[in-house]
């Protein structure tokens, strides 16, 4: 019995020492790694070549470069802002070619990018609030910090991977359609959003439903991308989507940011798992 108690005491001492080392050294090592990774993510959002003292660098992205695409154009991104859009649309029914671009006094804020950047900044703030001299006293304290950081990183990632679902009336009244010159025809709607690492442009061609139409009118709900046949009501008019044209392009630095989010979340989870291992010891609970 004495031997068994001695072994238990020895094991307890080893566990206590390992846990102290984890709290005092390894936690701070992981925090430094996370800060380095998220600093790189933050740099992606400010764009290469830009500075904090001046405007973000402009980047041009070509959309619909294939020979058979109905929509072609160039979108100019400046940080989290779409500063210019130059779009050509070929109307399939009449073979008519329409050209429209942003008015010179107009820009469109991409809220998804802005929100993702803000969440990264908040995660960085949480990490830097505990410098190397700070002594974590309990595993629960570390878990609480990791949960808070992971929440911000998950929100940042979700803002890029989960575009907002909008109804067609919301798209029609969002203000984007009023930013073009010449003014968009009343039978066109435009939407721009981020999906993962891609900048997406959708053009909806519409036709009005006649008051005596025999079609069963069912207003479409919210969606990231509406399909032909979707119906909605705008003012006193009932409309139906006849054609949908979607073009997109990859934004390389958004791809980098998503990778950094994934690696950071994995590091946080690994640290949480190590902390949780100690709770499995019945005789020693560092929480």
TrEMBL record:
Family matches, as Pfam families: Rogdi_lz
A cellular component annotation (GO) from this entry: nuclear envelope
One GO term of the biological process aspect: positive regulation of cell population proliferation
Compartment(s) of residence: Cytoplasmic vesicle, Secretory vesicle, Synaptic vesicle
PANTHER family: LEUCINE ZIPPER CONTAINING TRANSCRIPTION FACTOR LZF1, PROTEIN ROGDI HOMOLOG
Family: Belongs to the rogdi family.
Record's protein name: Protein rogdi homolog
Species, as recorded: Otolemur garnettii
Gene that this sequence comes from: ROGDI
